[in-house]
Each structure stands twice: as structure tokens, then as C-alpha cells.
Amino acid sequence: MHTVVPPRRLTAALAGAGCLLLPLIAAVPQAGAADVPQAAAASGAMAVAPYEYLGWGNPQKPTDVMAATGVKWFTLAFVLSDGGCNPKWDGSRALTGGSDESAIKSIRGAGGDVVVSVGGWSGNKLGEKCSSASALAGAYQKVINAYHLKALDIDIEDTEFSNATVRQRVVSALKIVKTNNPGIVTYVTMGTTPSGPDSNGKDLIKKGAAAGLANDGWTIMPFDFGSHSGSMGSATVSALEGLKAAVKSAYGYSDDAAYRHIGVSSMNGKTDESDETVTTGDFQTMLGYAKQHHMARFTFWAVNRDRQCSGGGSAGDSCSGVGQSPYAFTKIVSQYAG
Q: Quick count: other Cβ atoms within 10 Å of Cβ 234?
């Protein structure tokens, strides 16, 4: 990877120590009446919630983005382990009482809402630090309760993704979360090959189906392929077709139902690979595919990068590396209505 481009795979330096093991399943916090989110379909404004990382990349004010683009929802990244089975922003900032909670309140005050993303490439992962599915579900529940969430994204990458035991723990924890929070929307986000999920991704989906996890959107990140042919738009469509086939096979869905349970989280502009540039034209290709198949999710990494680099510079954490107007990519995904 190019170290100059720290996307979701390269998060900020993390802090945290200690170990807080949560109780077993009998004591997993139950959502109280005020904590139960209203039933929400994984579509519309929620489905296009672009990622914004408030701890990285000179983030824009979310309310400014809303005013400029019409987007209403954001996927805020990343919640990680503080070194034990306890969730914090970047593994170091408390869930409540700080700038992250203030940003969420400002988004809601402007008529929007948020999906919170747990995971990412770097740092301590809750899926690894929590010793059981019930403990992990308890950690997820803390995040849900902190913001009365309607939707949760588990961005499972690196060692959390490659470990079969952890993959099982994640889907089992999400099944508990679904049971304890009627109506909550869940997304599982992972890397992919140009032909669809790799063996780990397929196994994750199969484990979800076997566990009875009614996941709303199995989402792939179609970039950092290593190699691909054709445009990034066509490579993304190929990867999505592979994802659809894996979800259909695991769950026994019809083609239509399978499409409605998959999603894409692309990257705008230059990625970590020198042969990958995702253009607005590629986003238009993805938009057409999403509209045709009514996918559960069409989003990207990241709002932070949705602007041209000053002086024609290369891509970084706060610009795309391609010539563009401000928020060109956000304006495309905002056209998707589910």
C-alpha cells in the first residue's frame, strides 16, 4: 500500500490499555425502550451513508457536507477496542461526552443520522479482544445504546477477517444483537477479489447463514485488488456478481433477494494500488448497477477524500488525487434511493 493514502485500511495510531471482559450472554445489556431503534429498512438515505472519519484526514463538518450534497446519513469510523473488550473511538476516545457524540448530535439536528462502523484495517479489534460471542455482543450493544443506533456496520478486515474463530464470533454476536434490538439494520463490510469474496469472505457469509443471521447487507470493498483488468467500474460489477452468487448460495435466496442483501463500499479517486483510479464515471457505473438491482448499500471511503488535492498533488487522507469538483463522488451516491 502507498503509505501516503491511509484509507479505511490505515487508521490513526491507537491508544488504550487494560482488559474489561464483559459478562456472558445472560448479562448482555438489553436495549431499553428508549434504546430500541425504530424499524428501519436498509434502503434510501441510510443505504448511501458515505464514510467519514472524524479522527483523520482534515474532516469536513458533516453538516456542511449535508448542505452541499443533500446526503443525510454518514457512516462514522471507527470504533475499536481500548485494549480489552471495551469500545472506544479509535480505541482511545470515549463514546460519549466528546467531539464524536457532538458531531452525531449535529447531524441529527440537521435532519440526518448515522451508521457507526466498528473495525477497519488497523488497531485492536473488538472481534479479537472479546473472548466470546456474548461478550462481543455486549461491546456492540454499548455502541448501540450510546447513540440509540438504527444501524451498525462491522468492517471486518486483516487478522479479524482471516481468523475462522473470530469470523464465527462476529456473526454469532450480530445474531445476538439482532435478537436484542428489533429493527436494527446490520452491515458486514469486507475486502474482495475482482471475482467476488475470497475463501474467507465466502466462509463468513456461510457462517452467517448457518447462524441464522438475517444480515441486511453483505458489503464488499472493491479496491486494493493487487491486480485487475478493465475499468474499476467493471471490476466492481464483476466483484458484486460474485458476492451475489455467494449470498444466494449460502442463504438460498432468489436472485432478486440476493441482490437486495448485498452492497458496495468503493473508494474515490486513487487507491493504494498504482494501477487503480476510481473515477466519477466508475461511480456512475456502480450507481446504475445499484439502481437496477436495488442493492442494500451503495457507499464509499471517504468523504474526507472527496475533494481535489491542492496544487494538483497526489492522493492522501484528505483528497482524492484526481481532478474533481468538491463532493463529486458524494453527489453521485446521494442519487441512490434503494
A: 14
pLDDT tens digits for 218-248? 999 999 999 999 999 999 999 999 999 999 9
pLDDT in tens, 79-105: 999 999 999 999 999 999 999 999 999
The HSE-up count of residue 237 (CA atoms within 13 Å, CB side) is: 17
Beta-strand relationship, 297-301 and 262-267:
parallel
d(CA 318, CA 325): 14
DSSP 139-151: HHHHHHHHHT-SE
Residue 187: its H or E element: strand 185-191
Task: Sort strands 87-89 and 73-81 into parallel, antiparallel or unpaired.
Answer: antiparallel
Q: Is 157 a catalytic residue?
A: yes
CA angle centred on 91, ends 177 and 29, rounded to 5°: 25
The whole model's pTM is what? 0.89
Cβ(173)–Cβ(184) below 8 Å: no
Question: One of 52, 101, 128, 157 is an active-site residue; which one?
Answer: 157
**The C-alpha cell that represents 276 in the structure block:** 487503480
Q: How far apart are CA 259 and CA 243, in angstroms?
A: 9
